[in-house]
Structure formats: C-alpha cells, structure tokens
Amino acid sequence: MVVKLPKHSKMAPTQGGTQGGVDYKLTTFLQGSLTLDDYVWSQEEWPKVAYNDYNDEDTVPIIDISLLRSEDAATRSKGLKDLMEAAREWGFFRLVNHGVLSDVTEKLESEGKELFALPLEQKKKAVRLPDSIIGYYFGAESVFSKAWLEAFHFSGDKEVTDNMIRQVSPENFNELSASVHNYIDAYQKLAIEVVELMAIALGLEPSTFSKYTATKGDKSTVRVCYYPPCPQPQQTLGQRPHADPILITIVHQDDVGGLQILKNNRWIAVKPEPGTVVVNVGDTLQVLSNDIYPSVQHQVVLNSERSRLSMAFFLIPEADALIVPAKGLVDDEHPVRHPPFIYRDYRKSYGERRAVGKSHLESFYTLKDA
C-alpha cells in the first residue's frame, strides 16, 4: 500500500487532546511558538510507504546465529555464507537465537516507558550538551526538519550514564542504572561476536573489525527512542533517511513497526518479529570492508494510532582509530575505495551536518580536503 499524501492544511497549535479518536500529548513537541506546521517536512521527504505496509517479497534476511556457533563445520560454513550474503546484498539482517535474555530487553523497555512518562522539565534535567550525543533530546531541538521523537542516549561509560540517571530519575536510580548497563553489556558482547563472524565470513582474522571497538572515552552506547502517535504521519518523520556512522547498530523494536530501509531505490517496511533484533552496517564498517558490506539508508515513519518504542545499540569505534580498508580485501582488482580517516574527525563532521541518506560518506572527503 502506498500512502496517499494529503494536501497540507494549517493546523492549530493544540497542546493535547483527541484527533480522529486518538489521544495524544503535544506539549513536548510544541515548545514556545511552535505549531504542528513546524514538523511538516518538504514534500520530497514525505514517507511513501505506510509504517505497517509489509511485503512478503521484501523480507529482510533472517540469520540464525546459533548455526554460526555450531561445532559442525558444514553447518557453520553455510551460516557464514548466509551472513555474508545478507550483509553484502542488504546491509541489514535480522538475528534469531542470539542469546540475549528477554528479561534484559524487557526490563529496559519497561524502564524506558517510565522515563518518557516523566514531566518534560524533569526529562530536560538530562538534556544533552551541544557537543555530545549523550543525554535527553526531542524533535523540537532540531535546527533542520523537526523529528517526531523523544530519546535518551546512554553511554557505556558507567560514570557518565549514572550521573545522567541521577539527574533525571534519582528515585529509580538503582533499577534504571542496572537495566541500562545490563543491556549495554549484553549487546556489546553480541555486537562484537557479529562483526567477528562478518570478518571470518570474508576469510579474515576474527579481530579485523572488532579491534576498532571503543574501550575508552567513546564507549558503545544505547539510545532508547519513543515515537508518540502523530496527528500528521503522512507529512512528518520520526527519523530522517540516514546511514549510521559507526560499525554496526543492533535494534530492538516493539510490535508497532515504523523502521524502513531503502533497497533498490524502494522503501521497505521492516516487520517486527518477536525474539529477533535487526542489525545494520554502519559507514565505518563499509570503509573497513572496502565497500563489501554497505551501510544502508533507513528512516522511521509514524502513525496516528499507537506509540512506538525502540532501542538501538551502537558499536562505536575508538575516537582516535585510523579507519582504513582491511589489507586482506585490497589488491590490484580491488583497490582501496576510501582514503583513511580518523574516526573522531568523521563523527564530528557527521554531527555538524544534516547528513541525509548516505550523503555524508560520499561527501566527507571533499569536505575534509576543502
């Protein structure tokens, strides 16, 4: 089903109420003189596929990671081949039998819902600083087209995250701190296993990609996102089309749907499946793999009926890491596709620009040399 885009009409700056039988709160998004019109994106950016328009012919590949852990050589070889093909052709895949306990995910999901239910002024006590990705933020802060979401971005650095939690939820500090760090620890282990398997699938040493993983200041992170029902989902986005700058992202989404990926110039809705997580390749891994594993554009679309909560774990490279294609993937027939760069420089440039789609990876070298 393709969404029929209505003509845009002026909407009053309602602070809350009911529209089409749907209750929604707008106080977070309509700060100061903002109205719903401020959240309308350009018509070229309007979503073209509904949040729940799933097509069985466009199913994101499913990788059973238990097969990759098998001691049977044939089973493991088949699993590695499937993993490589999924990452190479899609840049996105779903993992089943990944081993992360459901309690770990459900606990943070529950804690996240309680966080977003707090008064706005309480949440803003943990607001992120201008030069940081860590903290609380909401769409009204964007200087570009405003995104219809709230998010808490937690660092894997225990001290940083615990200080943040004390600001926003001191009465629930112990529970929330444990939930965040248990989640990060579990998905850090899984993410490292995944990138090591992706290296093995290419005939490389397991640590070829995982050795870049941040262990110091810029540790891996988790972002808990909340997308309330939106009165105008056909004209607004939860997140713009983008590719992630990091190694890989592992996403848990609830049963509502809204994540979409771009494949062959068509947007595909990623159907939530119980017990699975979605993995996507980031720009850094694309460069390290010399373009064998592509990062992929993805976005979040909205609906007017139900709120959506997702949790994205980001496997982040060390800030001072030199990102250069793996030697085993470079020869006369496969020259270096990307000049080397320091990850810190790339991440800084990415944050300073409106990196729509994959435009940042494509233009970074021009900007760097300007």
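The above is record 1. Record 2 follows with the same two-line structure.
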Amino acid sequence: MADVYCSDCKKNTEVVFDHSAGDTVCSECGLVLEAHSIDETSEWRTFANESGDNDPVRVGGPANPLLTDGGLSTVISKPNGASGDFLSSSLGRWQNRGSNPDRSLILAFKTIATMSDRLGLVATIKDRANEIYKKVEDQKSIRGRNQDAILAACLYIACRQEDKPRTVKEICSVANGATKKEIGRAKEYIVKLLEVEMGQSMEMGTIHAGDFLRRFCSHLGMTNQAVKAAQEAVQKSEELDIRRSPISVAAAVIYMITQLSDDKKLLRDISLATGVAEGTIRNSYKDLYPYASRLIPNWYAKEEDLRNLCSP
C-alpha cells in the first residue's frame, strides 16, 4: 500500500494495486486511479512439470552478442513425463546432431563461468574473459593447444584488466588440471596474439601487494587490527625500492605483522594461504626487515617490540 491523492475523496488515501488486472484502486472509495499499468518487477511464474524440473522462470536467458545467433536459437526440450536420458531418444539425437557453429564457444563460456564461480568473481570479469576468448578463437590459431590453459589464461588476463587480479596459483586451482607453467605460456601467447591484432600493446593493469593482502589475511583468519596494520605497511612498502613481486611482498608483510602479535602464524601456513614458497617469503622478509620501523605503524607496535622482532 501507498498514499496517493484520490480525486474522488479529495485527499491522500491508501491505494491497493491489483496485480491481476494492473489497476491501482483507492482503498476508501474504490475508484480506479490507474488502469492497465505495467508491472516491471521480476516474474516467477512457472510452467515446469511439477514432477520434474521446477525452474520457476518461464523466460530464456539474455542475448549473447558473442554468439552467432545471439544465444537465442531453438532447442528441443524434454517432453512432459519423459524419463531417462533425453539425448537417447530420436528427437534428442537429432538435436545433438544439429549443426551449431557456436557449440565450442558455448562449452568454453560454461567452463569460464564455472571457474569464475569457484573463485567468487563478479560477472564483469567473466564477461571480459569471454570476450578475450572470442577474439582468440576468431584467429583460428589455438587448435592443438591446451584448451584448459587457454581458458584459464583468458580469466587471468580479465582479472588483471578489471583491477581484481588473482595469482596464477589461484587460477590454476580451478583450471581443470592445467599447470602454472602451461597457463603462463598460454597467457604470453594470448597477449602476443591480441597485440598483433590490435597493432598496439595490450593493457594488463598494474598489480600491487594491496590487491592480494586482504584476501590472504582472510584465509589466515587474522584480526581486523592486524589486517589494518598490514595494509598500512604494504602501502608504505611501495615507496621503497624492494625488487620483489607484489605477492611476495604481501606474504612477507603478513609474516612480519603476525610476528608482532600474540597470534603468530607459522611460515608454512602463510605459504599455503598466499601460494608463495617459504624460501621466497624468507628472502622477501630479509629485504623488508631493515625498514621495519618505517613500515610498521606506531599504533600497532612500539619501538621495543620492533627491536625484539626476529631477525631474518
């Protein structure tokens, strides 16, 4: 209900919306104030068989401009009351044999969507990865290459371009068996291929240690105070000439911060959470240790605490 001015009652009265007729009716006098209005809210009417699929949506998916037919082609559905594998029936076999030029693209997009969901990525990253793969597939030069590595590399590039980078190890964990080395090679191949097509260098976005820090801290279950101190330390580290990868710097900062807290984290646990080897974390920590007094916020650790900080 809502208050609307009624011309018959000469005052603001509560109105009732009749969804079946699309009418807005005054609750006082019954006057129809607005007729046949359009309901723009989501529709969840279902036409599915009660004993089968109970999907409440009676509309199809959105158009996909990356597909030849926009993703709006006709598909033979399972008959009502049908049991068993529909594709084993005659109609199912004809549907399966039908020529669909976008079949490989649809399968690739489904794989990218699955990887994106497992990583908790937003839809814009998934759509960007689909666009990158479509450009690569149009070049007709990926035949014989590792398809899983190509798809994972497209997702990695999309994360970089959308300023939500993920480590290669994180991408590898959802890449259906593709190794870090294979994904790295696929990424370099895609970048070179698209740079030739565009005639200019491909923008990948700059990664910073802060892009990974909060996610790593969450995996380790660190307190809010420790996370805040680590974020400040990472920001200050960018002013230093530390020739380490942002991921290694983030891992080393986390190790330094946790050593100053009561909830100390083992190097092994930090390595598992960040995907950085223990030896690499040690070496990065050695580079950061001389600047500890500049990196660690004063409110988090006192001077005497820093002096007691374990040396590398």
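Strands lie at 2-6, 11-18, 23-26, 32-34.
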